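Table 4 source record.
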Amino acid sequence: PATAAAREVREELGVSLPIGRLLVVDWIPAAGPKTEGLMLLFDGGVLNDKVTHQIRLPRDELLEWAFVEPDRVDGYLSASLARRLRAALRAVELAGTRYLEAGEKPASADDGNGDPYGWLKEREWPEIAEIDGRLEHGEIDEPDSHAEMARLIVAAYLAASTPWEGSGKSGSAEDWEYARSHIAHAMDRDVSFLDVGCANGFLLECLPRWTAHQLHRYGLDIAPEVRDLAACRLPELAERLFVGNALDWQPPHRFSFVRTGLEYVPRERRRDLVERLLAWCDRLIIGAFNEETEKRWTEESLHSWGFRIAGRRERTNRQKPGIDGRVLWIDGT
């Protein structure tokens, strides 16, 4: 197939390109006289000016070529081809391979070895994906996993050049506000609030600007160095910033609201995390997290564990087409 792809590129475009790794395998069902088949998409690399100036089309087959933005491909391709192309672009981002059936990802095919957040880890925190993989394969145990995760977070957050980078968000201050401020929509009254995974405390610092309600703020982080950074940045909260793993940490008292991310713990412990945190609070806020627009993995998981969603907010990701930033909350009984 790779040799055939190279040959077709030469015949259709008149240039020789190195054929890279496989990006997409798309199974196509039989239709009419056509039998079922497999469509394979390979990475052809990035075309520079030298290559594009050499492109020559066979006039009896092709009239023109053009570079097209990903969000405009629907005007040029059939629906199934457009889905296949978007899957290929996602595979490039994730350094992986996507499996499709008739242009769609089958319901049984989760990215990240069944982890709905796996593809995000592979893209933005590949080291976390590697730690999760070693844990699932029994190469390390859970305490080792937490220790390695803490070391990774410490190195990244202490090296951050902006407050939002030190709280896990790249980009600009505006990007941070857009991606995180909808957490405040879960705040509907004056509360005590615990941020699990508080990092350098930047979310705790920003929340009073995002809500009119009074918040008695607390933070918990797995890494002492990161907790100390938060205490230096927010000395008024120093006595309310704690070190611990939310799966076994003993809180000093109950909280009105607690915020966390399910991706903070291994996949098989996420239900435990939700149950444990709900035992401490009146409302558990989950997010902000990114999901593919057409998927509702987090809600589906929570429903399957017996939890009812009390509220939700979401925003379209402005940098990543097809991705939404979401916040959910669950009220305790």
